[in-house]
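RECORD TYPE: inverse folding
INPUT: structure tokens
STRUCTURE:
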């Protein structure tokens, strides 16, 4: 077997540099919350394939479901020769999605594809062209989803022109309020700004949908206050605008609930899921109210590989693990433990400006000075490197790349979690030396 160094040299020769790689350890195998590289070194995984392995690497039930389906058939294209798995998993998501309204689900392959189709459905259902997204948001790397995404480098730089009739407004980033206000005295003015936005950027009558992540992933795990989404819901309803909630990273138990938007008690019109839905297999979905999902004409929605039977079998196993095997409750417990530890770290380390998130989807925003809140991007990169060298994989994110986020598999053991937290704190201490 080739070494990490040899594989890295081959990557540089055969793979374009635009396909970025964060760490130079090549995977041999992974189980639960542990990754083993080709040289036998173990890493505790606090990244989870960027939120894909909520049920853990190679969960036995997921692997068994994949093998069982692979023995039957791999692909027929649901549009040509349909199969019951597509209907069964759609029915499960329809039941689990927020709200009591009748729902429908369609499947595609990636988070970006799900968002693209949600936009298509919203435009078709309303007869309106405009889509409003938010600063710090991330929705994918296709032309439409790249346009909806906020951060220029590395996601958008040099890849324009971008899609038409898309607009972006400030988000509820309380730690760095774009309006210079403080919560709760602000009375969530950031949500009410949508009404002003209709005057200065795009008319409400031309707006098909507002799309938002309940907790912004790549943007820095930015978590709005309790009043935010109910207020957005009210404004959208007032103007006949659909609310699309992007649960690609936040969904499937990441916050201790199947859907993160449930923390706000809000029912979206359309919701997108991907990442951990397939347990490591490529699968995404758009789930929404029947009145909107049923409007596109026959053949208007589809994908050759969308709803691949092997991926759907994996998804069935994922949903069983989350619900019947009590992994959601495990996620809640993890979140409580991690939040307590992070609060303690914040008390000891001045570089931690804010701790935020829901459940085990938590983040540390690093700053050089707590008064000025100057982002500590270089320190975040150094922290990631220090952790990696000690056997812990963590990710930085945020528009200023100064936020450390946690996306560990929910099946992580108490011992693995403690070891990972200890490595993180030791590395924070080294930043000061």
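DESIGNED SEQUENCE:
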């Amino acid at each position: 077997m080739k070494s990490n160094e040899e594989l890295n040299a081959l990557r540089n020769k055969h793979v374009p540099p635009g396909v970025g790689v964060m760490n130079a350890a090549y995977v041999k195998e992974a189980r639960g919350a542990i990754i083993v590289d080709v040289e036998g070194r173990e890493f505790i995984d606090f990244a989870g394939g960027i939120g894909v392995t909520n049920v853990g690497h190679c969960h036995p039930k997921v692997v068994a479901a994949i093998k069982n389906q692979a023995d039957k058939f791999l692909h027929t294209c649901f549009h040509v020769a349909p199969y019951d798995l597509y209907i069964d998993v759609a029915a499960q998501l329809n039941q689990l999605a927020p709200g009591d309204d009748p729902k429908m689900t369609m499947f595609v392959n990636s988070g970006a594809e799900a968002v693209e189709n949600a936009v298509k459905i919203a435009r078709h259902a309303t007869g309106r062209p405009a889509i409003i997204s938010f600063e710090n948001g991330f929705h994918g790397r296709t032309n439409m989803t790249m346009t909806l995404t906020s951060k220029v480098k590395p996601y958008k730089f040099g890849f324009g022109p971008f899609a038409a009739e898309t607009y972006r407004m400030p988000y509820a980033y309380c730690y760095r309020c774009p309006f210079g206000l403080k919560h709760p005295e602000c009375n969530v003015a950031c949500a009410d700004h949508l009404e002003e936005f209709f005057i200065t950027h795009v008319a409400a009558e031309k707006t098909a949908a507002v799309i938002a992540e309940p907790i912004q992933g790549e943007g820095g795990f930015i978590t709005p206050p309790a009043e935010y989404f109910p207020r957005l819901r009210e404004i959208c309803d007032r103007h006949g605008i659909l609310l699309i909630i992007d649960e690609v990273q936040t969904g499937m138990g990441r916050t201790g609930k199947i859907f993160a938007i449930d923390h706000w008690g809000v029912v979206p019109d359309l919701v997108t899921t991907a990442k951990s839905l397939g347990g490591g297999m490529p699968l995404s979905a758009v789930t929404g109210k029947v009145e909107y999902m049923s409007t596109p004409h026959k053949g208007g929605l589809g994908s050759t590989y969308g709803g691949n039977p092997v991926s759907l079998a994996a998804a069935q196993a994922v949903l069983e693990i989350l619900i019947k095997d009590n992994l959601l409750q495990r996620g809640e417990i993890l979140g409580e433990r991690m939040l307590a530890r992070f609060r303690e770290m914040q008390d000891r380390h001045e570089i931690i400006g804010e701790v935020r998130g829901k459940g085990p989807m938590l983040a540390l925003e690093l700053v050089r000075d707590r008064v000025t809140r100057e982002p500590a991007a270089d320190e975040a990169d150094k922290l990631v490197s220090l952790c990696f060298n000690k056997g812990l994989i963590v990710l930085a994110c945020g528009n200023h790349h100064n936020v450390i986020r946690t996306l560990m598999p929910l099946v992580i053991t108490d011992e693995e979690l403690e070891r990972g937290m200890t490595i993180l704190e030791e590395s924070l201490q080294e930043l000061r030396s």
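NOTES: The chain has two domains: 4-58+327-431, 73-323.
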